[in-house]
C-alpha cells in the first residue's frame, strides 16, 4: 500500500484496518476500527481532511477528496464518512458528509457540501449535487438524485449486514498476511 505524508501529516489507522496494497492514501486521513480500503482507491487528505468511521468499507476504484478553504468558503469542505458505511465500487466522494449505515451504490458521485443523513441508500450511478441534503430513511436514485421511496425494514437491516460482511472479509484478508 502507499501511505504518504503531506505537509508532515500521515494517514492514521490501527491494526484492525485493512488497506489494499494498490490503494493510495495521502495526508490528513483517519480510519476508524475495522474499516477497509480496497484495491485502487485514491484518497487525498491534502487540502482538507478525511475522517472515515468504524466498520466502513471503501470499495475498489473509489476516489475520495475534499475542498480547500477559500475566501468564500473559509473552512472548505472536509470529507466525513460515518460508521457502517458501504461505499461501492468506483464511487466519487468530494467534500461531503455521510452519516451512519449508508450504502452508496456503484459509480455514484456525491459532491461538495452534500449531507447524507443516517440510514440511506444511494442508487448506483446517481449524482448527489453540491449542497443537497438526503433525508434519513430513504432510497435516492437518479442524476441528480431524487427521493424514490422509504427504505423497507429489510433494506434498513441490510445496511448493517453489508458493513458486517466487509468486516468479515477484511479480517480474512488480514489473516492471509
TrEMBL record:
What is the protein name given in its UniProt record?
A: Gamma carbonic anhydrase family protein
Which species does this protein come from?
Pseudoalteromonas gelatinilytica
List the residue ranges forming a coiled coil, or say none: none
Gene3D superfamilies hit by this protein = Hexapeptide repeat proteins (2.160.10.10)
Q: Which PANTHER family match?
A: DYNACTIN SUBUNIT P25 (PTHR13061), PROTEIN YRDA (PTHR13061:SF56)
Q: Which InterPro entries match?
A: LbH_gamma_CA-like (IPR047324), Transf_Hexapept/Carb_Anhydrase (IPR050484), Trimer_LpxA-like_sf (IPR011004)
Amino acid at each position: 500500500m502507499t501511505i504518504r505524508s503531506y505537509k508532515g501529516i500521515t494517514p492514521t489507522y490501527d491494526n484492525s484496518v485493512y488497506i489494499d496494497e494498490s490503494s493510495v492514501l495521502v495526508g490528513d486521513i483517519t480510519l476508524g476500527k475495522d474499516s477497509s480500503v480496497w484495491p485502487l482507491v485514491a484518497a487525498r487528505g491534502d487540502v482538507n481532511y478525511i475522517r472515515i468511521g468504524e466498520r466502513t468499507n471503501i470499495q475498489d476504484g473509489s476516489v475520495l477528496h475534499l475542498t480547500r478553504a477559500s475566501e468564500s468558503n473559509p473552512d472548505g469542505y472536509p470529507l466525513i464518512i460515518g460508521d457502517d458505511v458501504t461505499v461501492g465500487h468506483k464511487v466519487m466522494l468530494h467534500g461531503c458528509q455521510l452519516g451512519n449505515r449508508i450504502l452508496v451504490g456503484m459509480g455514484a458521485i456525491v459532491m461538495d457540501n452534500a449531507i447524507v443523513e443516517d440510514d440511506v441508500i444511494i442508487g448506483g450511478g446517481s449524482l448527489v449535487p453540491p449542497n443537497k441534503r438526503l433525508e434519513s430513511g430513504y432510497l435516492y436514485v437518479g442524476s441528480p438524485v431524487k427521493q424514490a421511496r422509504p427504505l423497507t425494514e429489510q433494506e434498513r437491516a441490510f445496511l448493517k449486514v453489508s458493513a458486517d460482511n466487509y468486516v468479515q472479509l477484511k479480517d480474512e484478508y488480514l489473516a492471509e498476511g
